[in-house]
Amino acid sequence: MDARAQDRLRIAVAWRAAGAEAKRAEEIAPGYDTAHGVAVLRDNGVRPHQTLEALAKLRPVFEKGNRHCHRREFFADYRWRSGLVDWNRGCREQPWPRNRLAPFEASPTRAAIPGEWGLGPVYAIERLLERLHVTIEDAELVEINEAFAAQVLAVLRKLKDEGIGEISDERLNVNGGAIALGHPVGASGARLVLTALKELQRRNARGGPRQSVRGGGQGAALWLERL
Q: CA-CA distance, 224 to 72, in Å (whole number)?
């Protein structure tokens, strides 16, 4: 995968994440760093001031290939709390926006062969669209969990080459992704869902797929709708 394209994606993700800091504040409960005696009020891994020239000077992690640490997500410390409530009771007692997941059976998990590690999301999205009888063009927003810049670009290319569809920049990870925000192991799915539902609410949009990569390269996809 072209190194320059990976760097452009890295910078674009950081800009989106920096521009969405006020939105992200709606998702964050302040914490307290007892070791340093400070309150933690925002994500501190976003780096919006990087440039293509600066990134080009960094050496790759391995002698072969062009894998750099800045082209992948970093591991982040997150604590996530979520809950499920009875639909009728919840809507009656709280005036919160109404959101729902597509039926669980329409939320597939697929695996790719070892040589195609990272492309599991392509097959999960394909199966999801088939089960729901929709197309990728029906999705107003799309979230793809970013493992590596090369992996995201490969997924987008594979979706196009397989005739599944194209995802424009205007619909993809509009508030930044894991390359800029970090990968909270065990909590990425919850973060993607909350981020997506809140953005659907802001845009008065209907829905779209959310995807993540699981250990070993499996892909999981689900479709969220705002009612």
A: 26
Provide the residue range defining the domain that includes 13. 3-71
Residue 63 contacts by C-beta under 8 Å, 6 or more apart in sequence?
A: none
Decide if 180 contacts 17 (C-beta within 8 A).
yes
Whole-prediction pTM:
0.79
Q: Total structural domains in the chain?
A: 2
Which of 47, 71, 95 terminates a domain? The answer is 71
DSSP β-ladder status, 143-144 and 109-110: unpaired
Give the percent of the chain with pLDDT over 70: 75
CA nearest neighbour of 1 among 150, 122, 121? 150
Cβ atoms 113, 146 nearer than 8 A: no
Higher pLDDT, 2 or 186: 2
Tokens, residue 189: 């799915």
